[in-house]
Amino acid sequence: GFALFTLLNKNQTTSYSTGLAQKEVITLPDNSLVNLNELSELEFNKASWEENRLLNLKGEAFFDVEKGERFDVNTNLGTVSVLGTEFNVLARDTIFKVSCYEGLVQVSYKGKSVKLPAGTEFMLSTGKGKTTDITIAEPYWLKNMSVFKSAVFADVVKELEEQYNITVDAPSTVSVKFTGAFEHGNLDNALQSITKPLNLTYTIQNSNRVIIK
């Protein structure tokens, strides 16, 4: 049965998936590292890894790739190919965003391809691709922060409730959009970050209830 075993082995897919507020660090067979963000799925074939560094991703992950042969990350919105670098890929719903922190990556989508040098990111939204500069050294989510850009306040509150497992009473009349971040792991700091810019105040009632006004 040995021949049969090697045959089966060729189709061995290793997969990982993360739940809400759960992250996972995965070491690939070539010692490349993948930081898988929450609510994400990653799969690859261990048996053929050496000749074919190929992964499928749903969700978000940060990659620190060892130098070597081509390395491909497939998503349902496009493929990202590199030779050895650090980059972040977000492919969730209709959002596809690739941020290159080191080296050079190539993004292929809908028959087009674009090269991203370090310090740039590519965003595909409503079918149009756009490349912009990035100013941070690594993705915010690796630093345990939730980041928002012109977000509806209710969405910010919802994310806060999920991260801290609390109930928040907040006025539904806040119409100002929120741009900023809050950290995970310090509720006071997080609440200050989201209330101060909007001139709101908060009180922590008990371990799982907060009132914002």
Account of the protein in words:
With 213 residues, this protein is mainly beta. Helices cover 14% and strands 49% of the residues. The strands form three sheets. Strands 1, 2, 3, 4, 5, 6, 7, 8, 9, 10, 11, 12 and 13 form a 13-stranded mixed β-sheet that branches. It is elongated. 26% of the residues are buried. The N terminus is likely disordered.
Topology (elements, then pairings):
Blueprint (H helix, E strand, L loop, with lengths): L1 H8 L3 E5 L6 E4 L5 E4 L4 E5 L7 E12 L6 E5 L2 E5 L3 E7 L2 E8 L1 E6 L2 E6 L2 E6 L2 E6 L11 E7 L1 H12 L2 E3 L8 E6 L3 H9 L6 E5 L2 E4 L1
Parallel strand pairs: 5-6, 15-18
Antiparallel strand pairs: 1-4, 2-3, 3-5, 4-5, 5-8, 6-7, 7-10, 8-9, 9-12, 10-11, 12-13, 14-16, 17-18
Number of contiguous helices: 3
String of helices and strands: HEEEEEEEEEEEEEEHEEHEE
Q: How many β-strand stretches?
A: 18
From the N-terminal CA to the C-terminal CA, the straight-line distance is: 69 Å
Radius of gyration: 20 Å
Global morphology: elongated
Report the β-strand fraction as a percent range. over 45%
Low-confidence stretches: 1-10
Give a quick precis of the structure:
By secondary structure, the protein is mainly beta. It has 3 helices and 18 strands.
List keywords for this structure.
three-stranded mixed sheet; disordered N terminus; 3 helices; mainly beta; 213 residues; 13-stranded mixed sheet
